[in-house]
Amino acid sequence: MSGVGTAGGGRDAGDSRRVDRRRIDLHTHSSVSDGTDSPSELMDKAVDAGLAVIALTDHDSFDGLAEAAAAAKRSGITLLPGMEMSTHLHGASVHLLAYGMDTEDPALNAELQRIRVGREDRVGPVLERLSGLGMQISREQVEAQAGDASSIGRPHIADALVEAGLVGDRTEAFDRWLHDGGPAHVERYTTELPAAIDLVHAAGGKAVIAHPWSRSSREVLPPEVLAALVAEHRLDGLEVDHHDHDLQTRRELRALTEELQIIATGSSDYHGAGKLDHELGCFTTDPAMYERLLS
Ligand code: AMP
Ligand code: FE
Ligand code: FE
Ligand code: ZN
């Protein structure tokens, strides 16, 4: 893997925008999961946003990484291969970012396949709930929104509701119907967090908990639980700088990473048109932390 020193350049030659070669965004989604840009489009936009390094971290899938790698090579940006894995701890959802793993690892791929099947199996029951609430949309309408995504998710159901004129946007669909515990929410299979960390490590990757204190997850992942995950499972880091964390939360999380001597990352969690307030590079990762992630 090339280091930060070799990143950047390419299309930016002659651009009036100053390219900060150290801008590193380690959490983004393409249309392989619930983002709206293809992996190639995403790499082009990352260059335009002045990023030197980008990680593609689609939900529960590596399927966008080959296309992203080819596009990144053309445009001179450094791609860190990643993935955001659906896990749970004590019944609550936790997202785990994996970086630099062997994407052919059989055990990890088998587990991701199981998660993706759970995603497919959940669509029908969610549509039944929605129907019971007076909102009729078909599986075909959801599949039309998902396109050839490997990882079908609630955002695609939200998009189908928007397309049918039943809600104004994804946010309204989540706020009214699809949020965790909401009227049309249905659980799906996810991996236990400690087992997921172990699987990522066995595949040679680093494991970083995504937006650990977003929404209600602070209660699920208090400092003592995070400390135990570091001590017992060698958790590598926490995503500190993220749209879902306010300034105070980011300060507390950063202090915790220092205390636990683990990596602190920052990223956009870009989803293209799917999440308008998450533009590429809105949060970035310190180059020294990125180097630790590569080591
Ligand atoms: P799923 O992968 O099907 O469990 O759906 C979770 C995904 O939905 C997350 O990765 C986000 O991209 C998106 N999401 C979750 N909550 C919201 C929300 N309140 N508004 C918009 N998108 C959301
Ligand atoms: Fe998402
Ligand atoms: Fe997430
Ligand atoms: Zn994400």
Automatic annotation (TrEMBL):
Residues 1-41 are annotated as: Disordered. Residues 29-39 have a biased composition (Polar residues). Signal peptide: none annotated. Coiled coil: none annotated. Transmembrane segments: none annotated. Residues 1-11 have a biased composition (Gly residues). Residues 12-28 have a biased composition (Basic and acidic residues). InterPro entries: PHP_dom, PHP_domain, Pol/His_phosphatase_N, Pol/histidinol_Pase-like. Residues 24-89 form the Polymerase/histidinol phosphatase N-terminal domain. CDD domains: PHP_HisPPase_AMP (cd07438). GO terms for molecular function: 5'-3' DNA exonuclease activity; 5'-3' RNA exonuclease activity. This is Polymerase/histidinol phosphatase N-terminal domain-containing protein. It comes from Naumannella halotolerans. The lineage of its organism: Bacteria, Bacillati, Actinomycetota, Actinomycetes, Propionibacteriales.
